[in-house]
Design goal:
Low-confidence stretches: none
Largest sheet: none
Structural class: mainly alpha
Radius of gyration: 26 Å
Order of helices and strands: HHH
Strand content: under 5%
Shape: elongated
Distance between the termini: 75 Å
Length: 95
Amino acid sequence: MTESYIPSLREYAAVYQIDTRRLGPRQVLMHPGPVNRGLELSGDAIDSPQALITQQVEAGVVVRMAVLYELLAGSAGPRLPDATPAAPETEPQPA
């Protein structure tokens, strides 16, 4: 088989799209963003009270900013001392 099948956007959405029918009453919808509205998530699901997309995107931005700051600026705080290797245990010698 050398051919591959690539579904159309309509076929993809029909099979894989998350909509309010697929969300249970106690489930929350999270997505790191950006969202392909109408393709991977339906507009109803994005706008539902179960969607935590905005909160997740906001938290992700803060985390990425902190990681970039540490990588680019470095930490000026005290560094932990290097761990000293433990002394090797010796077997008792017969007397």
